[in-house]
Amino acid sequence: MTTPIITKDMTFHQVMRLSPEVLKVLAQFQLGCVGCMGAQHETIEKGAMAHGLDVDELLEALNAVFKQ
Asked: pTM of this prediction?
């Protein structure tokens, strides 16, 4: 099985389906994506920008879930 690599082009919905641990990371960034209608279509990059977050920092934290 290959290790998932989360990219800025993926939607929040795609990322949340990869692992329940992703939800903890999103919560650390104050992102309440579960239940958000935008999570289906909003990319990680657009969501980070909309919430004033550094997309690279968010991606690093999300991908760290799969490097454990």
From this structure: 0.87
- Which residues are paired to 11 by β-bridges? 43
What is the C-alpha to C-alpha distance for residues 68 and 66, in angstroms, rounded to an integer? 6
Give the chain's domains with CATH numbers. 12-67 (1.10.3910.10)
The answer to whether residues 43 and 9 touch, using CB atoms and an 8 Å cutoff, is yes
Compute CA distances 32 → 1, 3, 46, 68, whole Å: 29, 25, 15, 24
- Per-residue pLDDT tens for 3-56? 669 999 999 999 999 999 999 999 999 887 777 777 788 999 999 999 999 999
Query: CA gyration radius for the chain?
Result: 11
* Maximum CA extent, the chain: 34
